[in-house]
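#struct-pred

JT: dropping the chains for the assembly here, can someone run the whole complex?
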Amino acid sequence: MSVSQAESRVIINKTAAMAGLIAPYQAEVVRLAYAEHIVRCTEQDPERMEELLSLDGDLEKAHKWMALAYAKREGDPKKICGLVVYLLSNYGAAEEDREKRRWLVRQIERGRVRLDDLTYELLKGTRLEWEHIFKLVRKEFNPTREKERVKRWYEKLTEHE
Amino acid sequence: MNDGGFFAGLIGGLEEQCHSEHPPAAVLRKYVWRRLPEGRDLRAEVERLLSSRVGGRWTLSQVSLHVATCGACAREVARLRAGLGLTRESAFAGDRPTLLSRKMRRRLAYSIPVAVTLALILVLFFLPHPVATSYCRFGALAM
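RK: done, full complex below.
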C-alpha cells in the first residue's frame, strides 16, 4: 500500500470512528489480539497490519505495536515477548486481580507455564514483575535496552509523517 | 516503568460488553486446558468476533478477548480453573490430563516410524531367499 493510500485509509477509519461506525472498543480488540499473537509467536507480518491496527484512526498505537513486532524480528524474539507480557500484565487492566496473580506467579515459579499458554485474559491485572518475566522467558535481559530498540523502530515508522 | 509514557498508554484495556454470542461450555473447557486452535488470519479472526459470527470455530484469541469482556464467561472460566476435581495448578502443561507429556509424544512421533523402518529392513535381510528354492523345485519338476 502506498503512503497516500495508507493515509486515506487512516482518514476513512478516523471518520468512521468519529461517526460511531467503528467503536474504539473494536480497534482495541484488534490490537490486543495482535499483542497476544506476538506473545505466542503467531503474529502476522507487521507491514500488513497497519490498516487493521488503526481501525479507530489511532496510528500512534498501531505504529507502536508494529514497532514491537519489528523489534521482535530484529533481535531475540523472547525478550520482546517478555516485554509484551509485562505490558499486558501491568497495563491491561485498571485493577489488580490478586487471586489470579497469586496463581500465575505460582505457575511461573514452578515452570508450568509457557509463553504460548498466555492470553490477554490470563495476564490482565496480574501485575507481574520483571523477575517473573525472566523466569517465564528463561533468560535475563535488560528491559531498558529492549524498550529503546522498540522506540527506534517506532521512530523509523513515523519519520516520514 | 519509567519510559515517559511511551508504553503506558499503549493498552487501553477493555470494558465489560454485552455479547450476543457466548462460547459453549466445551469451548471454555478447551480454553482453560489450552487446547483451542490458534487463528491463522488475525483479520478474519477479529472480524468474526466483532460481528458475532464466530459459529463453532472459536480460536484462542477469540475466547480470550470474549472472556476478558464478559463477566459471566469470566466467572465460568475461574470456576473451571478452580474446580472440576482438578487443582488450579494442573491447568497447564505439567499436569495436563494426558497419558504422555507433549515432549514424550513428540519423541514417539519421530521414533515410531524409524523403528518400523529398521524392523522392516531387518526382516527383509534375514528372510530366506525364496527364488533359489523355487528354481530348484521347478527344475526338479521339469526333469
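JT: nice. The CA atoms of residues 3 and 24 of chain B lie 41 Å apart. The interface with chain A takes residues 1, 3, 6-15, 17, 34, 38-39, 41-43, 45-46, 49-50, 60-61, 63-65, 67-68, 74, 77, 81, 88-89, 92-95 of chain B (CB under 8 Å).
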